[in-house]
Design brief:
With 223 residues, the protein is of the alpha+beta class. It has helices at 16-20, 26-43, 54-65, 67-92, 101-114, 161-171, 201-218, and strands at 5-8, 11-14, 120-130, 135-144, 147-154, 179-185, 192-196. The strands form two sheets. The protein has a five-stranded mixed sheet, sandwiched between helices. A two-stranded antiparallel sheet has the order 1-2.
Length: 223
């Protein structure tokens, strides 16, 4: 993911995801390798009598090296579609036409999760927040039952530590927020996974602040 920046009060601020993006993500390494392997498997002749020469395999292998770019682009497009679908519903109360089966599955997961709450009320969606040294766009600020939450939607394969640091950075910009969490919406199963990170907020924010210090130390005189 490319670095992202915001302009605010004459300053150019790094995004929250740019700051957390400094972290090594070992899961992405395995994912990229698996993308290459999947591409090779899908493009080999399935007939057992086939015999491949190296010259036959090399074009497939070379394309496999870059397959994760294609898969990543598709995943980003799907993630954007999921966010747009949910935002439309939250703003209009109408179920939108999902652009793909995966986006529809994620949206249905969102509706299933909503049903687990006695009440909810949107305060803001896709709202840009600003800290002293960073900025970012939150997915959802909402009253869940009687508590004000900030929620980040994810369509990833899992919930990873840096996601908690990200939501902590968002929450730190608004002292009225009482809780925070990550809502993962599975694009395959259509099931939600909710991780309330309120209890680890202080620790997560401490890590985020360290990452912010690191980013600015690596970019002296940036503003």
């Amino acid at each position: 993911m490319a670095d992202r920046y915001y302009k605010y009060n004459g300053k150019k601020l790094p995004s929250v995801t740019t700051i957390t993006g400094q972290l090594d993500k070992p899961a992405l390494t395995y994912w990229a390798a698996n993308c290459a392997c999947d591409y090779i498997i899908e493009n080999l002749d399935p007939h057992p009598e086939s015999e491949y020469l190296l010259k036959d395999l090399m074009p497939i292998i070379e394309l496999a090296r870059k397959n994760f770019h294609k898969v990543s682009s598709y995943a980003l497009d799907t993630g954007s579609a999921v966010h747009a679908t949910i935002e439309h519903y939250l703003k209009t109360g109408q179920e939108p036409q999902a652009p793909s089966d995966q986006a529809l599955s994620a949206f249905m997961a969102f509706l299933e999760w909503l049903d687990t709450w006695d009440s909810w009320k949107t305060i803001k969606t896709e709202y840009t927040v600003y800290g002293d040294r960073y900025a970012g766009t939150t997915d959802w600020i909402v009253m869940l039952n009687t508590k004000k939450f900030i929620v980040d939607f994810k369509a990833a394969k899992g919930i990873y530590p840096e996601m908690a640091y990200q939501i902590a950075g968002y929450r730190a910009t608004d002292s009225s927020i009482e809780g925070c969490g990550i809502l993962r919406l599975d694009k395959e199963t259509g099931k939600p996974e909710w991780k309330d990170t309120s209890d680890t907020y202080t620790q997560d924010l401490n890590i985020f602040n360290i990452l912010t210090d690191l980013w600015h130390a690596r970019h002296p005189g940036y503003e």
